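[Q] Does anyone have a clean structure-token version of this?
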Amino acid sequence: MKNLEFVLFLLVLIGGINWGLVGAFNYNFVTTMLGDGTATRVVYALVGLGAVYETYKIMRKRSAA
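[A] Here you go.
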């Protein structure tokens, strides 16, 4: 489970950096690396799932405190 959590954290980090680049410089790193296709959509979906999971972890910790 720890490996999965680490991968999900990395995906959220990559997504955050990518959106920062889009906002600041109008540069989409994921699209540049993977093109406009299915692979890019899969990466975005995984980033979204990672964000949902990270949010769940934070909310679970808050309710336990």
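[Q] Thanks! Anything notable?
[A] The radius of gyration is 14 Å.
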